[in-house]
Amino acid sequence: MTQDARLRALALADRTSPGVWSRPGGRWWLQGLEPVGTTEEGLARLPGRARLIWYWPSVVVAAADLLVLIACARSLAAEIRARHERRGDTRYKISTSALPDGRVPEDPGGDT
Fold this sequence. Notes:
five-stranded antiparallel β-sheet
């Protein structure tokens, strides 16, 4: 079996026949969508239906990580936008009202 050293919750079986994986088994491991059993010695007993062996809670963790990254990126973008607005830089300002001919009205606020 090959395994990515950076992602220990994911492995590929060399074949799709049943067998024993020399790694501790547990109820959260799946091969494809089939649960992986355990031997009397506690090793993973593979059902052999697919090559992909994965630890399904890692999907929840990866989704949470992605949500945190998105939230951080949105927060950073809002902070950058706010700094530019405080400086009076209108390049990053989004106009919500355009004139009928497509022109954007000038900011009546003046210089700060």
